[in-house]
UniProtKB/TrEMBL annotation:
It comes from the Bacteria. Keywords: Signal. Residues 1-19 form the signal peptide. This is Phosphate-selective porin O and P. Gene3D superfamilies: Porin.
Length: 408
C-alpha cells in the first residue's frame, strides 16, 4: 500500500505538467459516454457486426508485416510474417448480462489462445461482476493491445519481454466506473490463477515472467492453490488525460505438496503506472507505461536471475496530414516515435559490487497512414542497444518494418 501511495502521488505531479487536451478517440464506441472511455473499456470498444436477429455480434482484427533486420552485421534477410488473426464473439444475453470472447491465432496457427472469454453481470455502475477468462489489468497495454490502435509493428518490449503481454487467467472479480462532469474514474479487482516456477526456471536462463504463458494448465487449475490478485484504479479528466495505477501479485512457487512443506511461499509483485493524453493545440497523442517487478528468487540461484526488474515505453504520435487521400475522406498520416527501456536485472553482483547490466534501450520511428480510423499502414525503423549480464559492448539491432493492421 505504501508503494501504491507513492505511485499515486507521482502520477498526480505528472498530470499537473500537461496542457489541456481534447481527447481524440480511435472510433465511435458503443456507449453514450464516448468521450469518457478508460483503458478498461478497450475490451468492448471494438467494432462488432450484428447480422439481422442473430443473438451474437462478430468482429476481429488482422496483422501482417514485412521486415529486414540486422544484428551486429548478421541478417536473416527478408521476412514476411502473419503476426496474428484475432476473432471477437459477443452477445448481450439480457439487459444486464453480456458475454465477450477474444480468440487469437498467432504466426499462422503456431499458437491459438483464448485471451478473453467472460460473462459480465451489471449490478450497478460501481459494482459489476466478471467471471471466466479475464485479462489481468496490469498497466495499460495488456488491456488495450489491439494492433489497429498502434502506429508500431512490434508490441512494446516491456510489455512482451518483461511483463507477459495479453496475460489472462481464469478467475472472478468486480469492476466499476463513475462519471462526474469532466471526470471519470474506474477500478478493477480480480482473483485468478497465477504464475508458476517457470518464471525462474525457463529456457531464457533468467527471471522471465512471460514464460508463464506457456503453461496451458493455468486455465484449469492453479499451480499452487494461491490466487493471483490484480487490482487497478484509473482516473480520466477530459482536459488532462488518463492515469492508471495497477498491482499484480501472488505466490508463484509450489511450496507444499499433499501437506508436505517443500519451501517457503515466494512472491512475485508487479506495480505499474500508465498515462495518456492528447494535446489540444497540436493533437499530439502521448502514451506511456512504466512497471516494476519484484521476484523472491531462491538464494541457490545465481545472480543472472533478477530479483528486481523495471521498464516501460513512451509513444508520441503527431498527425501531420488530415484530409481526403485516395478517396478516403478521413485519412490521416502520422509521424511517431517510441522510446523504450527494460532492465531485466536491476542490482549488483554480490562478489564484486559491480552493477548487473542485463538491459536494453530502443528507439523506433514510424510513419503511418490511416485511410480510416480502424485501419493502419505503418512503416517503422527500429534501433536497439542490448547489453548482456556482464556489461560487455552492446549488441546492436537495426532494421525496417512495414505492415498493416485492420479491424474487420
Amino acid at each position: 500500500m505504501k508503494n501504491l501511495a507513492i505511485l499515486f502521488l507521482l502520477a498526480l505531479s505528472i498530470c499537473k505538467g500537461f496542457a489541456q487536451i481534447d481527447p481524440v478517440l480511435l472510433r465511435k464506441p458503443v456507449t453514450d459516454t464516448s468521450r469518457m472511455l478508460l483503458n478498461m473499456d478497450a475490451v468492448y470498444n471494438r467494432p462488432l457486426l450484428a447480422a439481422g436477429k442473430l443473438p451474437v455480434s462478430l468482429g476481429g482484427y488482422v496483422e501482417a508485416n514485412y521486415q529486414y533486420l540486422n544484428e551486429n552485421g548478421i541478417s536473416e534477410g527478408h521476412q514476411f510474417q502473419m503476426r496474428r488473426l484475432t476473432l471477437f464473439v459477443a452477445s448481450s444475453i439480457s439487459k444486464r448480462l453480456k458475454f465477450l470472447s477474444e480468440i487469437e491465432f498467432e504466426d499462422g496457427t503456431k499458437e491459438i489462445n483464448i485471451e478473453f472469454a467472460s460473462i459480465d453481470f451489471e449490478l450497478a455502475p460501481l459494482l459489476n461482476f466478471r467471471g471466466g477468462v479475464v485479462m489481468n489489468p496490469i498497466g495499460s497495454f495488456n488491456q488495450n493491445h489491439d494492433g489497429p490502435k498502434w502506429e508500431f509493428v512490434d508490441r512494446p518490449i516491456s510489455a512482451t519481454q518483461m511483463l507477459p503481454a495479453t496475460w489472462s487467467n481464469v478467475g472472478f472479480g468486480v469492476y466499476g466506473k463513475k462519471y462526474s462532469k469532466d471526470w471519470v474514474y474506474g477500478y478493477e479487482l480480480y482473483l485468478t490463477n497465477g504464475f508458476d516456477e517457470s518464471i525462474i526456471s525457463n529456457g531464457q536462463n533468467k527471471t522471465y515472467l512471460p514464460a508463464a504463458k506457456e503453461n496451458p494448465d493455468r486455465f484449469e487449475e492453479s499451480f499452487n492453490g494461491v490466487p493471483l490478485l490484480t487490482a487497478k484504479f484509473a482516473l480520466r479528466n477530459n482536459r488532462i488525460g488518463e492515469i492508471g495505477l495497477s498491482y499484480m501479485g501472488g505466490v508463484y512457487n509450489k511450496f507444499q505438496d499433499d501437506g508436505l512443506i517443500l519451501d517457503k511461499k515466494r512472491n512475485v509483485n508487479v506495480y505499474a503506472i500508465d498515462f495518456n493524453t492528447t494535446l489540444s493545440k497540436t493533437k499530439t497523442f502521448i502514451n506511456g507505461e512504466w512497471a516494476w517487478v519484484s521476484v523472491d528468487v531462491p538464494n541457490t540461484y545465481t545472480a543472472q536471475f533478477g530479483r528486481a526488474q523495471q521498464g516501460g515505453f513512451l509513444d508520441i504520435v503527431q498527425p501531420v496530414y488530415s484530409r481526403s487521400l485516395f478517396g478516403f475522406e478521413k485519412s490521416v498520416i502520422n509521424a511517431a516515435i517510441r522510446l523504450e527501456h527494460v532492465d531485466w536485472n536491476k542490482g549488483k553482483f554480490i562478489s564484486t559490487g559491480d552493477n548487473i547490466a542485463d538491459h536494453i534501450y530502443s528507439v523506433v520511428s514510424a510513419i503511418s497512414w490511416r485511410p480510416t480510423p480502424q485501419t493502419v499502414f505503418r512503416f517503422n525503423y527500429r534501433y536497439n542497444w542490448q547489453t548482456d549480464l556482464l556489461g560487455n559492448p552492446p549488441s546492436r539491432l537495426a532494421g525496417f518494418q512495414f505492415g498493416f493492421s485492420t479491424y474487420f
